[in-house]
From TrEMBL:
<dbReference type="InterPro" id="IPR002471">
    <property type="entry name" value="Pept_S9_AS"/>
</dbReference>
<keyword id="KW-0812">Transmembrane</keyword>
<feature type="transmembrane region" description="Helical">
    <location>
        <begin position="436"/>
        <end position="455"/>
    </location>
</feature>
<keyword id="KW-1133">Transmembrane helix</keyword>
<feature type="transmembrane region" description="Helical">
    <location>
        <begin position="325"/>
        <end position="348"/>
    </location>
</feature>
<dbReference type="InterPro" id="IPR001375">
    <property type="entry name" value="Peptidase_S9_cat"/>
</dbReference>
<feature type="signal peptide">
    <location>
        <begin position="1"/>
        <end position="23"/>
    </location>
</feature>
<dbReference type="GO" id="GO:0016787">
    <property type="term" value="F:hydrolase activity"/>
</dbReference>
<feature type="transmembrane region" description="Helical">
    <location>
        <begin position="402"/>
        <end position="424"/>
    </location>
</feature>
<keyword id="KW-0378">Hydrolase</keyword>
<protein>
    <submittedName>
        <fullName>Alpha/beta hydrolase family protein</fullName>
        <ecNumber>3.4.-.-</ecNumber>
    </submittedName>
</protein>
<feature type="transmembrane region" description="Helical">
    <location>
        <begin position="360"/>
        <end position="382"/>
    </location>
</feature>
<dbReference type="InterPro" id="IPR053145">
    <property type="entry name" value="AB_hydrolase_Est10"/>
</dbReference>
<dbReference type="Pfam" id="PF00326">
    <property type="entry name" value="Peptidase_S9"/>
</dbReference>
<feature type="domain" description="Peptidase S9 prolyl oligopeptidase catalytic">
    <location>
        <begin position="75"/>
        <end position="263"/>
    </location>
</feature>
<dbReference type="InterPro" id="IPR029058">
    <property type="entry name" value="AB_hydrolase_fold"/>
</dbReference>
<dbReference type="InterPro" id="IPR031337">
    <property type="entry name" value="KDPG/KHG_AS_1"/>
</dbReference>
């Protein structure tokens, strides 16, 4: 009899909904699953105040960039917002269909809407008072989700963007280099050219996403938050772009001194992130959410001093034909054929037992030009991979990285050698004239290439 009773109780418990677990500091934690874009199963956690009574406003938190980011990355924010009397849902970001070179903000927005629907249907949550919060990349995703569903009650973005992703990222890397003491052609010409190359080659996803067109479709009230030391999103330019892009004036723009890109404290101007949130940040979000969900809508409010940027962003339009990725790859192919062909031809003649008469200008050109070109691209790739605020340009002299100065010296030496080689090529005959002609053709292409990439800029 006792065994039968035990089995019955176990079966009943198996079909009962799981009780919320007690989280830190009096919060309740409930695990949930939902369907994202394409039917992908996604997992999340809902945090609520343990002793809350009555329907609560709710907020879904959307990650910044990165594939498969775990929900724990936003646990600090989620707990802080839940203590303000909200139900907060955090979830593991998708890895499927998302990478450094592939992503779709529409897909991410549908993921957020799946989480939003789940939170709206959660016990103790007021379905008419659930909004979406987005960090960094989430600043493009959250407004897009809101533009697709009127059931989203409000939008909060932190370190969010209101400009094209390619323009924002180009500024971030260039600003990071400038913060490290670099000026001149590397941040001014090299970085924008490299990002346009990546975009043209399909290696930078959604480079010209039209954030302004999305904002114009957002009818919900919006809270925009930026840290004074944001080194990844332009904190001086973005708020104005957001205000102009929205089709209404029910927004609040708020700035936090001493805070970084994610509104965390920073002690070194935004380079290092403190685990602590900026003082007053969770309270400001909680107060604003309660206010707008009760019908008290803001009227173009601004709180705090507008942050200042050391440099402004610059437009990064699609490349013209002559500067496209295809033409750039063709130029590199010309370098390989023209410059590598010189020593290869000499080696073949030696193997066949024939004499080879080389000249110093030809050797300098054949070696210096490709080293400068491929070295410049490698250095720019290193700078891009290093990101914005973590830029490490190496030793810098007079605002120029020493490595870049050496690459510029190689370029100048190669072109000077090409000038000396012109009369030699005119006097040459037969196959030697063809070989030197190929070198000089490569030199002309290299000159145009180096001017475009800033390798020859002072």
């Amino acid at each position: 009899m006792r065994r039968t009773l035990t089995v019955v109780i176990a079966l009943i418990c198996a079909f009962l909904p799981a009780a919320p677990a007690l989280a830190a500091d009096g919060l309740r934690s409930t695990e949930v699953t939902f369907r994202g874009s394409g039917g992908l199963e996604m997992r999340g956690t809902v945090l609520t105040p343990a002793g809350a009574t009555g329907p609560l406003p709710g907020m879904v938190l959307v990650h910044g960039s990165g594939a498969g980011t775990p929900r724990a990355k936003l646990r600090t924010e989620a707990e802080a917002f839940a203590r303000q009397g909200m139900a907060v849902l955090i979830y593991d970001k998708r890895a499927e269909g998302y990478s450094m070179t592939r992503r779709d903000y529409g897909q991410l927005a549908d993921d957020a809407l799946g989480a939003h629907a789940t939170l709206r249907s959660s016990p103790g949550v007021d379905p008419d008072k659930v909004g979406i919060w987005g960090l960094s990349e989430g600043g493009w995703v959250a407004p897009l989700a809101a533009s697709r569903s009127k059931q989203v009650a409000f939008v909060v973005i932190v370190g969010g963007n209101a400009m094209e992703p390619l323009r924002q990222q180009t500024w971030a890397v260039a600003a990071g280099l400038r913060k490290a003491g670099v000026s001149g052609p590397v941040p001014d010409r090299g970085v924008p050219a490299f990002y346009r190359f990546l975009a043209g080659a399909g290696m930078f996803p959604m480079p010209w996403h039209d954030a302004q067109a999305v904002l114009a479709k957002v009818g919900q009230p919006m809270l925009g938050i930026w840290g004074a030391h944001d080194l990844l999103t332009p904190p001086q330019e973005t708020p104005g772009l957001l205000a102009r892009g929205l089709g209404h004036d029910r927004y609040t723009l708020r700035y936090f001194p001493g805070a970084d890109h994610a509104a965390h404290l920073t002690s070194d101007g935004g380079v290092t992130r403190d685990p602590r949130l900026a003082p007053g940040y969770p309270e400001a979000v909680g107060t604003w959410v309660k206010r707008v969900t009760s019908g008290d809508l803001p009227d173009a409010e601004t709180v705090g001093d507008l942050p200042r940027q050391a440099s402004l962003t610059v437009p990064v339009p699609p490349a013209a034909f002559w500067e496209s990725a295809a033409v750039q790859v063709l130029a590199l192919a010309v370098f390989l054929v023209a410059f590598a062909g010189y020593p290869v031809w000499a080696l073949v003649r030696r193997v066949r037992g024939r004499g080879v008469q080389g000249t110093w200008p030809a050797r300098v050109l054949a070696l210096g030009a490709p080293l400068s070109a491929f070295g410049a691209l490698a250095y720019l790739m290193y700078s891009v991979i290093g990101g914005g605020k973590l830029a490490s340009p190496g030793p810098v002299v007079a605002g120029r990285p020493v490595i870049w100065l050496l690459l510029q010296a190689l370029a100048v030496a190669a072109l000077v050698a090409a000038a000396f080689l012109v009369p030699v090529a005119r006097r040459a005959r037969g196959s030697e004239r063809v070989r030197l002609g190929a070198l000089l053709t490569g030199a002309v292409v290299f000159l145009l290439w180096a001017l475009y990439w800033g390798v020859l800029s002072p």
